[in-house]
Amino acid sequence: MSAAAEPDGPLVQSISLAFRAAVAATILLALAWLASDIRQVPPDTTAVVSLFGRVVQIKSAGLLLALPRPIEAVRLLPGPERQISLGIERQAPAAGLDGGAGPSRPAPRISPAPPSGAAGSYLTGDGGVVLIDVALTFRIADPAAYMLAEAHVPPALNRLFRAATVGVAARHPLDDFLVVDQGRAAATRATASTALRQEIVAAMNARLAGLGLGVEVTRLDLTASLPPVARGAFEMVLTAGQGADQAIAMARTDATRRLAEADRARDDLLNVARARAAERVTTAHAETDEIVALQARATEGARANLLDQVYRDRMAKLVPTIGRLTAVDPRGDVRLILPGGEK
Length: 343
Prior knowledge:
- By secondary structure, the protein is α+β, with helices and mostly antiparallel strands.
- It contains 6 helices and 9 strands.
- Among the domains are: 11-78, no CATH class; 115-226, Tetrahydropterin Synthase, Chain A (2-Layer Sandwich).
- α3 packs across α4.
């Protein structure tokens, strides 16, 4: 029998084993390929499954079953609860706001540099100009729409912010952006600043609703400043206002102190006058009580006897205190010359 007729020769067995190994490897690779898009979606993440470019499934956190590439493609995006930050691109400052020389203004000796990162200059409702720097925060509200328009989201948000801020700034005074009025309460300024940011966010979301970008603005961190050419004058005004407020406060304090001293002096004078008046009234009552009592008891017939009695009572008290007494008949001819001091 020839070697070609032997079915179980070493060569045939080697080829058979190799073929079986290739089939097993192919099956394993096929299984691995089929299971390549079976994965666990992490928390705070949304998986978008597309079939040949068309979105067919949106899966939040959990186990995801999807066909392998290139049949289905899986894209992991931030979840709706995750906040995404975006810095607004800086605009070139308007002419004349960077402190440089204009056509009708000579160049200054020192040109102040414009603030770095400022998003742009805006005109306020009271005719002021403010530079605004913004950090914007948004979330993905529609993952399918966001995946299709992802490349257009940052420039769209930049344009929408500028358009919304132009309209909102025109309705607010400069003091809602900066501390201009020192007499304005801090709580009022904080409320106005919060309302201003909310207005910009609401205006941007209203415009985003019709664009289909799948995002929603949630927060706006706004930093406002003055143009360099106005900053010096503004600081001088603030310094003068603070000086005037301090002078007014000192004047009010001094006036309050003087008023308190005048009130104390008035109270002291009134107390002394009342005490003296009460003392004089008491003394007058003490000096006239006896006479008043006699007057109450006196009649026309007994008046002379009562007066004589008062005279004798008083003389009885006075005589023991006298060292020497000279009696003179008032109806006689005797005259006395008594020494006395000059008047």
